[in-house]
Structure prediction request, 593 residues.
Amino acid sequence: MNQPKTSMWRKIFALCAPYWFANDKQAVPLPFIGSVNVPAKWVGRTLLLFLLAGLVSINYLNVGLNFAWGDIMNFLQEFAANQATDPAKAQAAKDGFMAAIFGIGKVFLIGTFIVVAYRWIRAKLQLSWRTWMTNDFMKRYLNKDGAHYRVGNNVHIDNPDERIHQDIDAVVAQTLGLALTFIDSVVTLISFSAVLWAISQNLTYIVVGYSLVGSLLILLFGRRLVALNFMQLKLEADFRYSLIHVRNHTEAIRFYRGEDRELGTVKGRFGQAVENNHKLINWTANVGFFQTAFDYFVTIIPYLIIAPLFFAGAAKLGTFQQASMAFGQILGSLAVVVTSFQSLAQYAANINRLGGFDEALKEKPNAAGKPTIKTVIEPRIEMKDMTLQTPDYSRTLIAGLNLAVKEGTGVIVMGRSGVGKSSLLRGLAGLWDSGTGTIVHPELGEMMFLPQTPYMLLGTLREQFTYPRSNASDAEIAEMAVRVGLPENFIALKGGLDAEAKGLSLGEQQRVAFARLLLSRPRYAILDEATSALDIPLEERLYTLLRESGVTFISVGHRPSVIRFHDGVLTLTGDGGWTMGPVTKEFIEEHQK
Prediction:
């Protein structure tokens, strides 16, 4: 699947806008009241309103400080000028200085409460936004349409877990931080432009021109950082995944004595991340060199402009202080692209990764418009003139299949490796729909699938037995565990039903999965070599239980010992060919030779 090309702004809007219009309820703790459920959009909008009020208040205080520092310098200048000649004026200047200092102290006290409250509200907004967005992505990723399966097979989307866990948090934090930075820049520009314009119009023109030139140059020099940051995120995610892969397959690695090979793989991926990081550091240094020079040089500009006025007696010493502070504030607001470029580069990389994931989740199955197998939901299993192809349509696995499975019977699918036996089950489950014809099957909730390697969820032993929908009691679980061939003390040895299920062998997993099937009592079951790790007597025992349960089932198998538990056999011959017939005594004897 090709990812649609979307502009950066569209990706930002698609990712960030939904939260501000979301009606999903969020729990908001309120003093003396307790937790109250409020639509997420009102949580976000209210907190943002308080943040904007905080920004305006802080800027108002900064403008006041600008004048106060100017007054302080003027009082010092007046005191120095009159100390020897006019003691009264000198004392007045001294009193004015002390009053200004105490005034600044009051501003600092008020500002402390505002800044602390501002940071607290910002953290709360960031958490609310991240919570909503993470839940939204998880709902779409693990929806009933199988988006997680499609995305997992999308070569353009690596490490979905990383994108949900880390990229969402990063995008929320960066979006909020950068948005507030730009809003603060606008408020600061408006607040201090009048101050600087009153001091020097020339200085105002210079700061605007200096900022624009700096912004254009940083965009020119720093474009490479965006690509490098994107690649760094990918390589770090790949390195992390390789470590997770080792953790999940420690036993197999130890059996194969494959530590050297795994170490080479992990080190190789880490090495790629380190190599790209070197490039990132070098380009960051280049951008940092420009940013530092930009910041250093600008400090002398106000003095160069105001000094002639001061020397001519047209400006006081406080004017230097006011001009320098106002110039710095305006420069910071206009040159926000220069000062925030590295953050912008990282932000663009995160937006590209999370935006690509978002688009993949929104992408409809078969977006290319190629033919698909029609699915009909009815309480039976049947395939009508069904042709199944690989998802990329490069190979036909089964052509023109007609098969109806009678209620309460079993059909075994046989054939050499690679002819499409497991693929047929994927088609029946709706995982693969590339091809033509019709598949009739019941609601997926009435079907249970048992793969060769059973799915073991993160949870207790009880949850393993009752997954996904069984309400079996502890006694029923214990009885079924024995019936499927697990030792009588199996549950006790594993620490009880409430203990986390760890260290189950493949044979134990397959027996737990069979117990899961029998406890859930579905009407239909699909088995893909679900007893491959068990000995023949135990395998026959499980299939006997399956037949006694009355479940209608289709199973893939190689062992002749299980053929007799089925009523029909579908043999796939390769290149799309197939044959269908009953399981007869002669057929069983022929395959047992």
